[in-house]
Design brief:
The complex is a heterodimer of chains A (about 120) and B (about 120). Chain A has about 120 residues and is an all-beta fold. Helices cover about 0% and strands about 50% of the residues of chain A. In chain A, strands 2, 4, 5, 6, 9, 10 and 11 form a seven-stranded mixed β-sheet that branches. Chain A has a four-stranded antiparallel β-sheet with strand order 1-3-8-7, with no helix packed on it. Chain A is globular. By secondary structure, chain B is mostly beta strands. Chain B contains no helices and twelve strands. In chain B, strand 7 and strand 8 (about 65-70) form a beta hairpin. Chain B starts with a strand and ends with a strand. The chains are: A mainly beta (about 120), B mainly beta (about 120). At the A-B interface, strand 4, strand 5 and strand 9 of A face strand 6 and strand 11 of B.
Chain lengths: ~120, ~120
């Protein structure tokens, strides 16, 4: 149980375009989802926390207009990278939990390459 | 602010031997949780073990155990009978208690297992 999927697993887009990454909880209802960014051989950096039906809370230094997060249902959250640039190339990981103060279950990640 | 420090960027162990990964943290909270996550080459984050701060007994999961020293704010992971599949990046993580499940990660330790 507690499976989280991400789609796509890899995506390549041109500079200036937008790309959407989906995070789904497959067998539970996720009241909270988290989005992380991970650079090669580095730790996970929390970008934002989203609660179903409300606006995401962004970490300091993360541009909310660039990284749009939507958590419209209890099983789906999306991260849209708008007007992507090569420096946005990274590994993006989502996680989900079904109650406050409970475990986070991680998705397999999405590798974004902006050319 | 809470911080998590992993002072060993890389470690190596012989197959079947024991290895200990270090983690220290800083917090003024009394109620919190500590975790060790494994990230193999697939990049999928896997929960290895968790420890509640209020529990004096060290957590154990099969070959994995922790040495939780609350006064010293130390949380090391011991892997016994190391296997080739244990090779991965290991992250120590902290979560405050109460109405939050935001994780703060250390910088990680890359563990190599030599056959």
């Amino acid at each position: 149980g507690a499976v989280v999927s991400q789609h796509p697993s890899r995506v390549i887009c041109k500079s200036g375009t937008s790309v959407k990454i989906e995070c789904r909880s497959l067998d539970f209802q996720a009241t909270t989802m988290f989005w992380y960014r991970q650079f090669p051989k580095k730790s996970l950096m929390l970008m934002a926390t989203s609660n179903e039906g409300s606006k995401a809370t962004y970490e300091q230094g993360v541009e909310k207009d660039k990284f749009l997060i939507n958590h419209a249902s209890l099983t789906l959250s999306t991260l849209t990278v708008t007007s992507a640039h090569p420096e946005d190339s990274s590994f993006y990981i989502c996680s989900a939990s079904w109650t406050v103060s409970y475990e986070q279950y991680f998705g397999p990640g999405t590798r974004l390459t902006v050319t | 602010a809470q911080t998590v420090t992993q002072s060993q960027p890389e470690m190596s162990v012989q197959e079947a031997e024991t290895v200990t990964l270090s983690c220290t943290y800083d917090t003024s909270e009394s109620d919190y949780y500590l975790f060790w996550y494994k990230q193999p080459p697939s990049r999928q984050m896997i929960l290895v073990i968790r420890q509640e701060a209020y529990k004096q007994q060290n957590a154990t999961e099969n070959r994995f155990s922790v040495n939780f020293q609350k006064a010293a704010k130390s949380f090391s992971l011991k892997i016994s009978d190391s296997q080739l599949g244990d090779a991965a990046m290991y992250f120590c993580a902290y979560r405050a208690g109460g109405a939050t499940n935001k994780l703060i990660f250390g910088t990680g330790t890359l563990l190599a297992v030599q056959p």
